[in-house]
Structure formats: C-alpha cells, structure tokens
Design goal:
heterodimer; A: 283 residues; five-stranded mixed β-barrel; 16 strands; 28% helix; disordered C terminus; B: five-stranded mixed β-sheet; 4 helices
C-alpha cells in the first residue's frame, strides 16, 4: 500500500507507505510504515521511497567542491566558513608545501576560496584542499546563497541550466556543492544572474523550470546581446568535467564548473585567468 | 457535559454562555499559522490564536561554539522564549525572568523527542520564540509555531509537535483557556504531543483537578491538538503553493 503520489509535497510525520517499500533518504521506518521526516517532494523509484528536501543544510562530504570564506587565521591553517554546521580548515602545508610563509599574505580574513573537501573525520573536522583544477581565490564578483539540495537543479542536466545563464549574461558562474554560487561579470549582468538564480531556488520544486528561466532571462535582458569572449572556453570546461565524478547522487546531480581533474598542476594557470578577469573589470 | 451556546451578550446573559467569549467548551480560538515569513532565518513561522501573536525562528543546524554544551553524538536544541515588553497590558520588564527560563526549557524538552538530533552531531539548532501579543496560552502557541518553523527549516523530524491547553474555569472543564480563564480559573493543563503516534512530550498542570476532570481535560486537549495539527500542515503546504 502506498499513500502518496510521486512528486507530492509531504511534511514530517506523513505516512508514505507500508513495509513493501524500502525507506530511502528523508524517510524513516516506524511500525512497518515508511514515514517522511522532511518537508519535501516524494520520489518513488522501483520499491524505494525517498523525500527530496525543499530546504536543507550542507553536510560536508569527501570529494565535494565548495566555496568558503576565510574566517580566521591560525598558526598553520586557515579556518573557513563553508555554509554548513561544520566549519572547515585549510592547512598551510597544502598551499605552501614545506615552505614557511606568512599566512595572511596569501589569504586574509574575508577572502573567498574555491576548495575541495579532502576529508571529514569522526569529530566532523572538515579538511579542505586547494589542489585541483580551477581551485583558488576569487577576485571580485558576487556571492549568492541557495539551498544545497537545489544545486543539481541550478546546474541542470549536463549543466544545461547553468550554461544558459552563463551564455545569456556573459558572467562566469561557479557553483559550490554547499549552495554558494559565485558570479562575476558586468555589474548589471551580475544582478540579472542573481535574480535568475534566486528564482530557480524559489521554484526548484516545480516543473517546466528551464522554459521559465529562458523567458525570464529574455525579459530581463530585453534582447540577446552578442559579444562573448570568455564564454566558450568555460562552457567547454564544464562539458568535459560534466560527466566525471560527483554523480554519486541521482542522475542529474553531476556537479560541474571548473573543478575536477586534479592531475594537472594549474597553479600557474590560475593567476593568469584571474588577471584576465581583472582586466575585464578595468574596462 | 453539554453547554448550550447562545449569542447572548456577555453582559446580560449569565448562565446561557458558559465562557466569557461565548465559545463552546471544546472550541478553539481563531487560529492562523503562516510558515516561512522571516527572510534571514533558516525556518520561521507566525502564529495567531485568539489574542496571541507569536513569532518563531529557527537557525541551524549550525556550528556550536559553546564547547561544554556540545554533544558528541547529537545536536543540541536550544530554545529561547521571550515576551516583548509591549505584549501584555502592563509593560513587562524586558529580559529573561524565571517564567521565560522555564518555558524555554520545557519548549526544548517538548520538541527534542520529535527531532532527529542524532543526524547532526556536535552542532546546534536554535529556536527563538518571540511573543508579540499575549492572551493566555503562549507556551502552547510558542511550541506549535516552533514546530512549524523547524519543519520549514528542513530539519528532519519524526512528527510535527503540536501543543494545546485545557483547564477548568468557572467549574467547567474547557479547551484552550484564554487569559481571563487562566487567571481566574481553577486549573490549567498545557500539553504537547506528536499527533501521529499520540505520544505526549509535555504535560504540565497548574491548579487542582479531580481524576475525572483531569481525564476529561486531557481528552479535550488532545482533541484540540489534533485540530491545530491540521492547521500546521496546511501552513507548510501553503508555503509551497500546493
């Protein structure tokens, strides 16, 4: 017996089904009944019932890429706020190697970094790292916070949604799995992207979202301006990284953006890119 | 017991209406709940029941900086109940007092059994209850609102806790005491429960009831909780435009 339909909104304590279904994420079992523990949408797959939350906090997981803000500098590490119940730390050795340097010269309190979760231990200490493609410090741009569970929706299937925003607004957009989004472009375009991203967060649980986003972008921009320079390069990167890893969750959650592929040493490439964007800022 | 409800005015009718506000003995005051009204909180709710106006905000799970409170295997649920100085007729001296400390504690105790605290070890969930206007039964209103706010914040729970009071006023056992009934009545019995299983998470009693009256008051309060619970569910679903 099942008491709910697929995609139905349920609230904590709602009885979803009898014991013939398995209890998935966002549910729990009580007296042979599967109940919801969250406010969210029911997802039925085969004989497994789960609830996709409409609101949540980010729980760090090894391998995730996140955006964090430096909150404190210690003797040999930085402390970072990663929009989660557990703060992260970045060991100085990860950045400098064996060399000893002053930490606050490199990253100061308030700086925003793009990092990877290297490890989460039993006491919930979150170790972060900067090794990987595209990881590093952001210069300029704006930050937008969304609910972490809506990150897959913002990215869309194979990055379709995020690429549309990038193409239309000519902004660089980077999404951390902790629900922090970094957007950089022309100030007016940043604002457009912010509006669109907030709208996606608001309506993530409804269907036909992609079309509505397209309409909204067209309306906000009034027309389709055409003068892209950095765009193609970024979307290429997304596509190549789109299919690798982080798809431990359901189909569409392939995280993306300039992350991943930690083989190349791109420390050299990093500053270049940033410089480039700085020049853009000057214009 | 059956009480005949008439529309007789309070000033003229004496026996016709048993309660000061012409309610039936098992009738709740007007109830309104709204979820997700605070921009900056992770979850929030606004509740009106009769003359009570209560705001609840939930922050978290978030990092706990007070190391001595930290639990290695679960989150701590911290509640803070506060009455605004203008919430009552005579200005209330602002700041915590004995009563608000007690209510903060019992709110936390009433909500904790429903929340999956073990999912967020070493963190805290903070609940703030602000009473903007008080007219009897604010602790129940606070718990009911807090539970909606917790659900709105996306915190996993076994059930949505709901609270309601019954009591004895003018010799009658009645549901949802108003301020006058509470102050001049013989007894007040606030309870909180998880409606699906019927587990009671809070039961307090002030005053005297016979065993029989207690049973009756408890049944009334449970009935009231069930009704309020429906409103809670509606409030959450309305938020997402069901």
């Amino acid at each position: 017996m099942i008491f709910v339909e697929d995609k139905e909104i349920v609230i904590p304590g709602d009885i979803l089904s009898d014991e013939e279904y398995h209890s998935g994420r966002g549910t729990f079992k009580e007296n042979d009944k599967v109940c919801s523990s969250l406010v969210g949408l029911v997802a039925i797959r085969d004989k497994k019932i789960s609830v996709i939350p409409l609101q949540s906090k980010y729980i760090p997981k090894r391998g995730d890429v996140v955006i964090g803000e430096v909150t404190d500098i210690r003797f040999s590490m930085w402390n970072l706020d990663i929009n989660s119940p557990y703060s992260g730390f970045l060991p100085a050795s990860d950045v400098f190697g064996k060399e000893k340097r002053e930490l606050n010269r490199t990253f100061d309190v308030g700086d925003v970094l793009f990092l990877r979760v290297v490890d989460v231990d039993e006491v919930k200490k979150v170790k972060l790292g900067l090794k990987g493609r595209g990881l590093g410090k952001f210069r300029g741009g704006i930050l937008i916070n969304i609910t972490p569970t809506k990150v897959p929706r913002l990215i869309g299937k194979k990055g379709s949604m995020i690429n549309m925003i990038k193409d239309e607004t000519h902004c660089e957009v980077i999404v951390g799995q902790n629900g922090v989004v970094w957007v950089k472009g022309e100030p007016a375009m940043e604002r457009v992207a912010e509006k669109v991203i907030n709208m996606i967060e608001d309506q993530a649980h409804t269907s036909g979202l992609t079309d509505r986003v397209r309409d909204m972008l067209a309306k906000l921009l009034g027309r389709e301006p055409q003068e892209s320079e950095i765009e193609p390069e970024i979307s290429d990167e997304v596509e190549e990284s789109g299919e690798l890893e982080i798809s431990d969750e359901s189909d569409e959650s392939d995280e993306s953006d300039e992350s991943d592929e930690s083989d190349e040493s791109d420390e050299s490439e990093e500053p270049e890119e940033k410089k480039e964007s700085k020049e853009d800022e000057m214009d | 017991m059956i009480i005949i409800i008439t529309n007789t005015n309070l000033n003229t009718g004496t026996e016709a209406s048993a309660r000061a506000d012409n309610r039936a003995f098992d009738e709740l005051r007007n109830l309104k709940i709204e979820a997700g009204i605070l921009e900056r909180a992770d979850g929030s709710a606004y509740l009106e029941i009769g003359g009570n106006k209560v705001l609840a905000a939930v922050y978290g799970p978030r990092e706990l900086f007070v190391r001595r409170l930290m639990q290695p295997n679960r989150a701590v649920l911290r509640c803070k109940y506060n009455m605004a100085p203008f919430s009552v007729d005579d200005r209330k001296r602002p700041g915590p007092d004995r009563r608000s400390v007690e209510i903060s504690k019992i709110t936390s105790d009433a909500l904790s059994p429903a929340v999956f605290l073990e999912k967020f070890p070493r963190s805290t969930i903070d609940v703030y209850i602000e009473v903007l206007e008080a007219e009897g039964g604010t602790r129940c209103a606070g718990i009911t609102a807090a539970s909606v706010a917790l659900a709105d914040a996306g915190i996993p729970m076994r059930d949505m806790v709901v609270a309601c009071a019954a009591g004895k006023s003018d010799g009658n056992v009645v549901l949802d005491l108003s301020e006058v009934e509470d102050k001049e009545g013989e007894a007040d019995l606030p309870i909180a429960l998880m409606p699906r299983t019927g587990e009671i998470t809070l039961l307090q009693m002030d005053g005297h009831l016979t065993e029989e009256e207690f049973q009756k008051a408890l049944d009334l309060a449970i009935g009231g909780c069930k009704k309020i619970s429906e409103e809670q569910k509606k409030a959450i679903k309305n938020r997402y435009g069901d």
